[in-house]
Amino acid sequence: MNSKQFIFILLPLISCGEVGEYCTEMGCVDGLQINFDPDIITHGNYVFSVTMDGVTEVCEYALPFVEENGEYGTCDGENIWLTISGTALDPSQHSIPEMYIPTNPIDISIEITRDDVLIVSSSFQPEYEEFAPNGKECGPICYNAGHTIDLME
Fold it and tell me: Per residue in 54-79, pLDDT tens?
């Protein structure tokens, strides 16, 4: 049998039957992204106190950033991720533009202080949207929301 005959025999076998569903292994992550408007840029010592469904976590950062043991700030839990920007730039370019919470809390309260003075107090209930990168049939299904906090620095 030559290769042309083999292909003609194989084609009907490949095309028979129902078209199956093909799933990729693309993943996704649940979470809440909180943007600060404008970015936090004023120099000082900041405390971010975030209460998520009754559980409070606290992060402390200073602007300009000061690296200590490979870290630029501290958090007492694992559910607050602050984005820091400009660490390789002049200290006048350092900023904190956003916060990410890698879970789906229903009730959020955030207080931010700078040098022991309250600059933000905000409470809200995020509206999560479903995201299924491979289609609902294949999974995973993740839930994400965004929120902007207006700052009066």
Answer: 999 999 999 999 988 889 999 999 99
CA distances, 2 to each of 10, 11, 12, 54 (Å)? 13, 15, 17, 72
Tokens of 46: 């900041």
pTM for this entry? 0.81
What DSSP line would sit under the chain, residue for residue? --HHHHHHHHHHHHH-SPPPP---------EEEEEEEEEE-S-EEEEEEEEETTEEEEEEEEES---BTTBSEEESSSS-EEEEE-TTS-GGG-EEEEEEESS--SSEEEEEEETTEEEEEEEE----EEE-TT-TTT---EEEEEEEEE---
* CA dihedral sign, ordered 96, 97, 102, 103: positive
* The two structure tokens encoding residue 58: 């606290």
pLDDT in tens, 88-138: 999 999 999 999 999 999 999 999 999 999 999 999 999 999 999 998 999
